[in-house]
Hints:
This protein has helices at about 1-5, 15-30, 60-65, 80, 95-100, 100-125, 145-155, 165-170, 205-215, 240-255, 260-270, and strands at about 55, 55-60, 135-140, 160-165, 180, 195, 225-230, 230, 260, 275-280, 285-290. The protein is of the alpha/beta class. It has one domain: Rossmann fold, CATH 3.40.50.150. Strands 5-4-3-6-7-11-10 form a 7-stranded mixed beta sheet, with helices on both faces. The two termini are about 25 Å apart.
Amino acid sequence: MENDRLAGLGNLSCDVALTISIDFIKQYLLKFPSAPATQTGLQQQPEHGGAHRLGSVRLLPLAMLANPTPFPIKTGNLTTLLSPPSPPAHGCELWDLASRNPEVNGIFNEGMACTSKIVMRAILSHYKDGFNNIRSLVDAAGGIGGHVAEIVRAYPHIKGINLDLPHVVATAPKYEGVSHVAGNMLDAIPNADAIRILHDWNDESCVEILRNCKIAIPEKTGKLIIADIVLKTDDHCDKFDDIRMAMDLVMFALTCGKERTEQEWKKLLEEGGFSRYKIIKIPALESIIEAYPE
Protein backbone atom coordinates (compact mmCIF):
# COMPACT_ATOMS: atom_id res chain seq x y z
CA MET A 1 0.00 0.00 0.00
CA GLU A 2 2.81 2.40 0.86
CA ASN A 3 4.46 1.62 -2.47
CA ASP A 4 1.23 2.51 -4.29
CA ARG A 5 0.92 5.85 -2.53
CA LEU A 6 4.53 6.86 -3.18
CA ALA A 7 4.95 5.26 -6.61
CA GLY A 8 4.91 8.58 -8.44
CA LEU A 9 7.59 10.03 -6.18
CA GLY A 10 10.12 7.20 -6.41
CA ASN A 11 13.05 9.27 -7.70
CA LEU A 12 12.56 12.01 -5.14
CA SER A 13 15.22 12.13 -2.45
CA CYS A 14 14.05 11.85 1.14
CA ASP A 15 15.34 15.30 2.10
CA VAL A 16 13.55 16.97 -0.83
CA ALA A 17 10.38 14.98 -0.13
CA LEU A 18 10.53 16.10 3.48
CA THR A 19 11.03 19.76 2.54
CA ILE A 20 8.04 19.68 0.18
CA SER A 21 5.93 17.94 2.82
CA ILE A 22 6.87 20.46 5.50
CA ASP A 23 5.69 23.27 3.21
CA PHE A 24 2.31 21.54 2.93
CA ILE A 25 2.13 21.11 6.69
CA LYS A 26 2.80 24.79 7.26
CA GLN A 27 -0.27 25.44 5.13
CA TYR A 28 -2.21 23.36 7.67
CA LEU A 29 -1.84 26.24 10.10
CA LEU A 30 -3.33 28.62 7.56
CA LYS A 31 -6.34 26.34 7.05
CA PHE A 32 -7.06 25.85 10.72
CA PRO A 33 -9.52 28.33 12.32
CA SER A 34 -8.13 30.32 15.21
CA ALA A 35 -10.44 31.60 17.94
CA PRO A 36 -14.20 30.91 17.72
CA ALA A 37 -14.86 34.59 17.04
CA THR A 38 -12.49 34.60 14.06
CA GLN A 39 -13.03 31.95 11.39
CA THR A 40 -10.76 33.50 8.77
CA GLY A 41 -7.69 31.36 9.40
CA LEU A 42 -4.41 31.89 11.20
CA GLN A 43 -4.28 35.05 13.25
CA GLN A 44 -0.72 35.58 14.39
CA GLN A 45 -0.41 37.77 17.46
CA PRO A 46 3.17 38.53 18.58
CA GLU A 47 4.02 37.74 22.17
CA HIS A 48 7.10 38.45 24.21
CA GLY A 49 10.20 37.25 22.40
CA GLY A 50 8.45 37.16 19.02
CA ALA A 51 6.41 34.00 19.66
CA HIS A 52 2.92 33.73 18.20
CA ARG A 53 -0.31 32.14 19.33
CA LEU A 54 -3.17 30.38 17.62
CA GLY A 55 -5.77 31.50 20.12
CA SER A 56 -3.90 30.23 23.19
CA VAL A 57 -1.50 28.02 21.19
CA ARG A 58 2.12 29.11 20.86
CA LEU A 59 3.23 28.59 17.26
CA LEU A 60 6.97 29.06 17.74
CA PRO A 61 7.63 25.46 18.92
CA LEU A 62 5.57 24.15 16.00
CA ALA A 63 7.56 26.28 13.56
CA MET A 64 10.79 24.90 15.03
CA LEU A 65 9.46 21.35 14.71
CA ALA A 66 8.68 22.06 11.05
CA ASN A 67 12.36 22.84 10.47
CA PRO A 68 13.93 19.42 9.83
CA THR A 69 17.55 20.59 10.25
CA PRO A 70 18.24 18.99 13.67
CA PHE A 71 16.38 15.78 12.88
CA PRO A 72 17.74 12.59 11.26
CA ILE A 73 16.58 12.23 7.66
CA LYS A 74 16.91 8.96 5.77
CA THR A 75 19.36 9.02 2.88
CA GLY A 76 18.60 7.87 -0.65
CA ASN A 77 15.45 8.20 -2.73
CA LEU A 78 12.00 6.83 -1.99
CA THR A 79 12.29 3.92 -4.42
CA THR A 80 15.37 2.45 -2.75
CA LEU A 81 13.81 2.80 0.70
CA LEU A 82 10.30 1.50 0.04
CA SER A 83 11.13 -2.14 0.70
CA PRO A 84 11.01 -2.76 4.48
CA PRO A 85 12.82 -2.66 6.72
CA SER A 86 13.91 0.89 5.90
CA PRO A 87 17.21 1.84 7.53
CA PRO A 88 16.91 4.35 10.36
CA ALA A 89 18.21 7.79 9.45
CA HIS A 90 21.82 8.35 10.48
CA GLY A 91 21.81 4.92 12.12
CA CYS A 92 19.20 5.79 14.74
CA GLU A 93 15.52 6.48 15.22
CA LEU A 94 14.24 9.96 16.02
CA TRP A 95 13.36 8.80 19.54
CA ASP A 96 16.89 7.47 20.10
CA LEU A 97 18.39 10.74 18.92
CA ALA A 98 16.11 12.72 21.24
CA SER A 99 17.24 10.63 24.20
CA ARG A 100 20.85 11.61 23.52
CA ASN A 101 20.42 15.16 22.23
CA PRO A 102 18.78 17.68 24.61
CA GLU A 103 18.21 20.17 21.76
CA VAL A 104 16.29 17.67 19.65
CA ASN A 105 14.44 16.42 22.73
CA GLY A 106 13.33 19.94 23.65
CA ILE A 107 12.24 20.89 20.13
CA PHE A 108 10.37 17.63 19.64
CA ASN A 109 8.58 17.72 23.01
CA GLU A 110 7.53 21.37 22.72
CA GLY A 111 6.41 20.91 19.13
CA MET A 112 4.29 17.91 20.08
CA ALA A 113 2.77 19.85 22.99
CA CYS A 114 1.89 22.64 20.57
CA THR A 115 0.18 20.35 18.07
CA SER A 116 -1.66 18.62 20.91
CA LYS A 117 -3.48 21.83 21.79
CA ILE A 118 -4.73 22.16 18.23
CA VAL A 119 -6.09 18.63 17.93
CA MET A 120 -7.35 18.53 21.54
CA ARG A 121 -9.73 21.40 20.80
CA ALA A 122 -11.35 19.29 18.10
CA ILE A 123 -11.38 16.17 20.27
CA LEU A 124 -12.91 17.87 23.31
CA SER A 125 -15.60 19.60 21.26
CA HIS A 126 -16.58 16.59 19.10
CA TYR A 127 -15.91 13.60 21.38
CA LYS A 128 -17.64 14.79 24.53
CA ASP A 129 -19.51 11.57 25.32
CA GLY A 130 -16.42 9.45 24.74
CA PHE A 131 -14.87 10.36 28.10
CA ASN A 132 -17.99 10.28 30.29
CA ASN A 133 -17.67 6.70 31.58
CA ILE A 134 -13.89 6.64 31.88
CA ARG A 135 -12.38 6.73 35.38
CA SER A 136 -8.73 6.35 34.39
CA LEU A 137 -6.95 7.13 31.14
CA VAL A 138 -3.41 6.33 30.03
CA ASP A 139 -1.91 8.50 27.31
CA ALA A 140 0.65 6.09 25.83
CA ALA A 141 3.67 7.95 24.46
CA GLY A 142 1.97 11.10 25.71
CA GLY A 143 5.06 13.30 25.55
CA ILE A 144 5.19 15.86 28.34
CA GLY A 145 1.53 15.27 29.20
CA GLY A 146 -0.26 18.07 27.40
CA HIS A 147 -2.86 15.80 25.77
CA VAL A 148 -4.04 14.00 28.89
CA ALA A 149 -3.86 17.21 30.95
CA GLU A 150 -6.36 18.87 28.60
CA ILE A 151 -8.70 15.88 28.94
CA VAL A 152 -8.46 15.78 32.75
CA ARG A 153 -9.04 19.51 32.93
CA ALA A 154 -12.28 19.08 30.98
CA TYR A 155 -13.25 15.85 32.81
CA PRO A 156 -11.95 16.15 36.40
CA HIS A 157 -13.35 12.72 37.35
CA ILE A 158 -10.68 11.06 35.17
CA LYS A 159 -7.38 9.97 36.68
CA GLY A 160 -4.78 10.80 34.04
CA ILE A 161 -1.59 8.80 33.50
CA ASN A 162 1.05 10.04 31.08
CA LEU A 163 3.38 7.28 29.86
CA ASP A 164 6.55 8.06 27.95
CA LEU A 165 10.27 7.37 27.87
CA PRO A 166 12.35 8.49 30.87
CA HIS A 167 14.11 11.37 29.07
CA VAL A 168 10.70 12.73 27.98
CA VAL A 169 8.85 12.64 31.31
CA ALA A 170 11.95 14.03 33.02
CA THR A 171 11.14 17.40 31.42
CA ALA A 172 7.36 17.16 31.90
CA PRO A 173 5.64 19.86 33.98
CA LYS A 174 3.26 19.01 36.81
CA TYR A 175 -0.43 18.87 35.90
CA GLU A 176 -3.25 18.55 38.41
CA GLY A 177 -4.83 15.11 38.19
CA VAL A 178 -2.04 13.68 36.01
CA SER A 179 0.79 11.36 37.05
CA HIS A 180 3.84 10.85 34.85
CA VAL A 181 5.13 7.30 34.40
CA ALA A 182 8.51 6.55 32.82
CA GLY A 183 8.34 3.48 30.62
CA ASN A 184 8.17 2.03 27.14
CA MET A 185 4.79 1.08 25.69
CA LEU A 186 6.52 -1.63 23.67
CA ASP A 187 7.22 -3.36 27.00
CA ALA A 188 4.12 -2.69 29.12
CA ILE A 189 1.33 -0.16 29.68
CA PRO A 190 -0.22 0.79 33.06
CA ASN A 191 -3.72 -0.54 33.73
CA ALA A 192 -6.61 1.84 33.04
CA ASP A 193 -10.20 1.97 31.82
CA ALA A 194 -9.05 3.44 28.52
CA ILE A 195 -5.85 4.13 26.65
CA ARG A 196 -5.28 7.02 24.30
CA ILE A 197 -2.49 6.43 21.83
CA LEU A 198 -1.06 7.99 18.70
CA HIS A 199 0.96 5.75 16.39
CA ASP A 200 4.21 6.75 14.69
CA TRP A 201 5.42 3.16 14.35
CA ASN A 202 5.86 0.42 11.80
CA ASP A 203 3.27 -2.35 11.58
CA GLU A 204 5.16 -4.86 13.72
CA SER A 205 5.65 -2.38 16.56
CA CYS A 206 2.03 -1.25 16.31
CA VAL A 207 0.81 -4.81 16.82
CA GLU A 208 3.05 -5.18 19.89
CA ILE A 209 1.71 -1.92 21.32
CA LEU A 210 -1.89 -2.91 20.62
CA ARG A 211 -1.43 -6.25 22.38
CA ASN A 212 0.00 -4.44 25.41
CA CYS A 213 -3.01 -2.11 25.34
CA LYS A 214 -5.39 -5.07 25.34
CA ILE A 215 -3.69 -6.48 28.44
CA ALA A 216 -3.95 -3.15 30.25
CA ILE A 217 -7.69 -2.44 29.84
CA PRO A 218 -10.80 -4.28 31.17
CA GLU A 219 -11.95 -6.96 28.74
CA LYS A 220 -15.65 -6.02 28.88
CA THR A 221 -15.65 -2.26 29.40
CA GLY A 222 -12.22 -1.04 28.31
CA LYS A 223 -11.50 0.76 25.09
CA LEU A 224 -8.65 2.11 23.04
CA ILE A 225 -8.81 5.70 21.79
CA ILE A 226 -6.53 6.38 18.83
CA ALA A 227 -6.15 9.96 17.63
CA ASP A 228 -4.42 9.60 14.29
CA ILE A 229 -4.65 10.20 10.58
CA VAL A 230 -6.89 7.97 8.47
CA LEU A 231 -5.95 8.30 4.80
CA LYS A 232 -8.84 8.31 2.35
CA THR A 233 -9.08 5.95 -0.61
CA ASP A 234 -12.10 7.54 -2.31
CA ASP A 235 -12.82 10.85 -4.03
CA HIS A 236 -14.57 12.44 -1.05
CA CYS A 237 -11.82 14.85 -0.10
CA ASP A 238 -11.68 17.56 2.54
CA LYS A 239 -9.31 20.47 3.06
CA PHE A 240 -6.86 18.35 5.07
CA ASP A 241 -6.29 15.50 2.58
CA ASP A 242 -3.16 16.97 0.98
CA ILE A 243 -1.70 17.57 4.44
CA ARG A 244 -2.43 13.96 5.44
CA MET A 245 -0.48 12.72 2.43
CA ALA A 246 2.35 15.11 3.29
CA MET A 247 2.43 13.68 6.81
CA ASP A 248 2.76 10.22 5.29
CA LEU A 249 5.99 11.38 3.64
CA VAL A 250 7.21 13.03 6.85
CA MET A 251 6.67 9.81 8.81
CA PHE A 252 8.52 7.87 6.14
CA ALA A 253 11.46 10.29 6.01
CA LEU A 254 11.94 10.71 9.77
CA THR A 255 10.72 7.45 11.33
CA CYS A 256 9.88 3.84 10.53
CA GLY A 257 6.20 4.75 10.77
CA LYS A 258 3.59 5.81 8.24
CA GLU A 259 0.03 7.07 7.95
CA ARG A 260 -2.67 4.48 7.23
CA THR A 261 -5.96 3.93 5.43
CA GLU A 262 -8.99 2.50 7.24
CA GLN A 263 -8.25 -0.97 5.85
CA GLU A 264 -4.68 -0.78 7.12
CA TRP A 265 -5.92 0.30 10.55
CA LYS A 266 -8.47 -2.54 10.57
CA LYS A 267 -5.77 -5.12 9.82
CA LEU A 268 -3.52 -3.80 12.60
CA LEU A 269 -6.34 -3.70 15.14
CA GLU A 270 -7.39 -7.27 14.38
CA GLU A 271 -3.81 -8.52 14.70
CA GLY A 272 -3.50 -6.63 17.98
CA GLY A 273 -6.65 -8.20 19.45
CA PHE A 274 -9.25 -5.50 18.75
CA SER A 275 -11.99 -6.97 16.57
CA ARG A 276 -14.44 -4.06 16.83
CA TYR A 277 -13.79 -0.42 16.03
CA LYS A 278 -15.44 2.74 14.80
CA ILE A 279 -14.03 5.90 13.27
CA ILE A 280 -15.26 9.28 14.46
CA LYS A 281 -14.45 12.22 12.24
CA ILE A 282 -13.47 15.52 13.84
CA PRO A 283 -12.57 18.88 12.22
CA ALA A 284 -8.83 18.22 12.29
CA LEU A 285 -6.05 16.37 10.51
CA GLU A 286 -6.68 13.35 12.72
CA SER A 287 -9.73 11.18 13.30
CA ILE A 288 -10.68 9.29 16.46
CA ILE A 289 -10.60 5.51 16.24
CA GLU A 290 -12.40 3.75 19.09
CA ALA A 291 -11.37 0.11 19.37
CA TYR A 292 -12.69 -2.60 21.69
CA PRO A 293 -11.17 -5.92 22.84
CA GLU A 294 -12.51 -9.19 21.49
